[in-house]
Amino acid sequence: MSKNIMTRVGMGVVGALASAAMLFCALPAQAATGWSALSTTEKKSSYGYFVWKSENASDASEKATAADAADLLKTAHFKDLTNIGAADDATSLANMEVSIEQIISINAFRSSLTNEPCRTDLPKGNPARACDDNGSGLTPLKVTDKMMAASQSNVNYSSHHWGHAANNGQNWDFALENLYTSSAYNPWTSDNQSAAVKSWYSEISNYDDHPLDCGSSAQIGHYRALTNKICVTNETKVEVLPFSTTGLAIARHANFNGNDYANGMTQSQVYGGMQWMGSSGYEYDASNYLSDFKAYVAKVNELGKKYTVTFDSNGGSAVATQTVDSGSVATSPTAPTRSGYTFGGWYSDAKLTTKYDFNSGVTGNITLYAKWDPITITSLDDATAVSTPAGVAPTLPAQVTAHYSDGSEQPVDVTWDSIAPNKYATAGKRFTVNGTVSGTAIKAKVTVNVTDAVPTGAVAAQSSVSTIATHAPDLSQVKATVTYSDGATQQADVTWDAVTPDQYASENANGFDVNGTVAVGDKSFTVTVKVIVTARTIASVTAPADQTVDSGNEPTYPDTVDVTYNDGETGTANVTWTKLTKAEYGKRAGGEFTVNGTVDGYAKGVSFKVTVKPATVQSVEPSATTAQTVVDQTPDLSSITATVTYSNGDTETAGIDWPQLTKDQFKTVGDRVQVTGSVTVDDTKHDVTVTVTVVNATVTKVESPQLAAGADANVTVDSGTSPETALNALKATVTWSNSTTTQESVTWDEPNKADYTNRKGGTFPVNGTVTIAGTDYPVKATYKVNPATAQKAELADGTTTVTVDSGTDPTGELPKTATVTWSNGDTTTSPITWVTTSYTKDDYAKREGGSFTVKGKATGLDVTVTVKVNPATVTVHTEPVTIGTTVGVQPNLPDHTTAEWSNGETDTIAVTWPAIAADKLDTTGSFELESNPFTVDGKDYTIKATVTVTAATVQSVDRDVKVTTTAGKAPVLPKTVKAHWSDGSTTDAAVTWNDVPAAKYAKAGTFSVKGVATVNGTDYEVTATVTVTSGDKLVQTPSNNTNANNTLTTTGSSVAIIAVIVVLLVIAAVALFVLTKRKKQ
User: Which of 110, 973, 994, 1001 is the most exposed place for a label (fewest CB within 10 A)?
Assistant: First the structure.
């Protein structure tokens, strides 16, 4: 080691370090002179390295130092011993790389010597202890290009000539040197330490023994230079003189003691930066210097090579391949195009994670991949605010304006989220609705303002009204119930259409509809009421005046009676009377009788009283006006009776009270003696006279009464009539001895009542006696009884009216028998045959009731009965109801009920409800509600409801999803599917999909992927059907969840972009940190 101490110079060059690593990653085009003019051997040497840096370093000081280093190799004292780029020369790149690695190793070794440089491990007072405070210890030595060139020049000399170059004419004012020579090339020890530094440090024991004896045969100079304690001539103590820079070179050749070793190794380390020493230029950390150097080595190793840059446009337009010299840069081509996408740059990997830098030199065949960003929606304009009446679901716009990543804009369809009814239930509310637009996760928005409720419909407050036939219905009091959009109701007047007389002219149980108009604000509604036309019935009947008739005179029966109808008007109606029999109006004693009549359409009937005056005697006639007697014999007048005839036509035979007669009155033959007798009737005496002729003769023959010509009996009577009177009128013919004949009375036996009352009639004999002058002469006669005839038929139990409920067929209720009165006075019970075709269901099913007459026959006689129909009763279904709903949803309350009439008719009755406050539906639970009153048949009714509010439940989940991808591209499965709830709303349910092996989508075809969607704690299996196409373009297939698929795809792209940005930011931060660190070194 040289003992010359150079002139003391100031140390230090503070270099602003630029990253050479970046320089060698992006080499600019070379000039025609300088580095580009060097030979390949020169380029592949430290000389070429220094020239390159002198041209391309970013810092002027860095360039100047590199230029000085290159110049030093060419101008050094022993420049001829430097064979630039030779394999054994220190300037070869391989030897220089090992040299830099040795510096790093030596710095580490120096830093490990904790007792250096003072040697504080030695006791104070020991001359080898240079100081008491090691300070920062042996700090890492910086590297400069100039120091490296100096060590290379030195070692090229020393590898061929034993000794230091400085001792043989080479003088540097910036470097001191340690040398190491070995007969074999082996720079490293077995424990991976520098062999040279091991050798130099081994001098420590010599130093400990002779710290000041730098010229002794026991070497200590290498150790002292290594540990910042260089030897100084004539020193009296050891001083620490720290170095800050270094350079190291290795030549693969050695000369030792005059012998050359072709495979030997000579190593030189020069030290600089100490006080008094000259500057060695721009300084580097050894590790950074090694990185920069390796980058240069990589560059020059590529000299002469050409590489192909291939552009994979990933479905875009084709881009031409480029051929590039090694280390040169590729030219960024014109951006390709692809429909529906914007070009996102070229990437060096197929996964598009690292963007390619076209300023980087090409060092191999590469393929660059185009990144495409779908033209996506970047923002959505809020839709224009809408207004909706309370209770009415708002009508939202079908489209909103979308702004795209390529700067365009256009209307797009939007699917709005479902809106809970309680959102728009109350006027004055304001809320926002989100919507989904296919292809973006950005939500569309629209503001909804809830205005006052509006009328939505109206119904007549009562379903029907009644009127009497021929009378116009009064609709003036019929109101309408108007329902508003929030469920509230109110009554309103109705303007009814005109009704024509023909519509209510006759009974119409089915009724007819009348429409009316309800005007509410600027809206109008049509309502309908049914008009039931009831029959015009008789409310009362004016009975005819009572009559008084003489016995035997039949009363008069008016054909019509005066009636008053249910509409208050009067008129006449036909009447059917049950007439008095002759026995009644001809009753001799007279009497009072009631005559009953039936009026069609009137159930109560009508009657008048008939007073029959007693009959009076009209005449009293003897049965014979003449008689005979024999001289001196009083006549026997006992057989002569009187016939009393009454004013009613009745006759009766009465005995005659004759005066006491004497023989003297009958002494002269031929006398005609007037004999007057009397008949007392009702205490009144009536005289009858018989002329008795006195004869002088005897009876020779008495003959029975003769039959009239063509007659089959002497007397004919109706059954029930005694033949006695008729028989008494018969005379026997008496033939006298004087040949004269007389008609003499006959005393007849009493006829058998059983015979003359026989209803079937017949001919019966009767015996009689003619008494003349005390002698009885028998005679015979016959009487014929005509069959009896039925005179009248009356309902057996006296019933005249049958009452039934409306809708009940009266057939089964009609009387079964009638009492028939015969002309002979008999009465019999006879079955009645009713004429059921004389009435129809319309007669007995009238809702308002009424009456009608049913006709029948009994023994051929007419009978009638009045059927009174009670008005139908109504049963209105007002049973309490239980209604379920979910939170926030108005319950579906019944809007009608049924009125069932006892006649079988039914009416549908409109039901309205009061509005339900929104807060009643905000939470689960139950509450009671009563409908608005409604009227049926004049009576008000309501219905009570129990409303139970429950939480919404899941009704269904969209379980089928369709996805399309291209071969080789993993399908993008939606992260969510739609869940549909019982309240009509929908939500997104997260889906966990099974893994999809790459083989599934490696080629065109279809396959399924299973997943699980979890909603409210319940798992639902979902299936995605994936269609793999062979084309380059991924065409979205509509699915059951299009919005979810688009959202997922867009989010994935966004995440990828964010990830790239984060990586680039990290890289930028690291680069900034490295640059900062280097500048601080």
Answer: 994
> What's the confidence (pLDDT) of residue 18?
25
What tokens were used for 718? 């109706």
Q: Buried (b) or exposed (e) across 447-477, using 16+ Cβ within 10 A?
A: ebebeebbbbbbbbbbbbbebbbebebebee
DSSP characters over 872-907: PPEEE----EEEEEETT-------EEEEEETTS-EE
Residue 473 backbone phi and psi in degrees, to 5: -70, 145
Q: If DSSP codes are grouped into helix, strand and coil, which group holds residue 215?
A: coil
Q: Which residues contact 403 (CB under 8 A, 6 or more apart)?
A: 377, 378, 379, 380, 381, 409
Cβ-based neighbours of 932, under 8 Å, separated by 6 or more: 481, 489, 911, 912, 913, 914, 942
Q: Which residues pair with 622 in a beta bridge?
A: 642
pLDDT number for residue 33 = 57
Residue type, 34: G
What is the DSSP pairing of strand 245-251 with strand 142-144? parallel
CA 336, CA 967: separation in Å to the nearest integer? 22
The mean pLDDT of the chain is 86
Neighbours of 816 (CB within 10 A): 11
Phi, psi at 81, each rounded to 5°: -85, 0
What is the pairing mode between strands 489-492 and 480-484?
Answer: antiparallel
Amino acid making up residue 867: V
Residue 285 phi, psi (nearest 5): -65, 145
711 touches 726 (CB < 8 A): no
Nearest Cα neighbor of 635 from 644, 648, 625, 643 is 625
For residue 608, report the phi and psi dihedrals to the nearest 5 degrees: -145, 160
The answer to whether residues 588 and 646 touch, using CB atoms and an 8 Å cutoff, is: yes
- State both tokens at 93: 């790149």
Share of the chain above pLDDT 70, in %: 92
Classify each residue of 576-596 as buried b or exposed e, where b means 16 or more C-beta atoms within 10 Å of its C-beta: bbbebeeebbbbbebeebebe
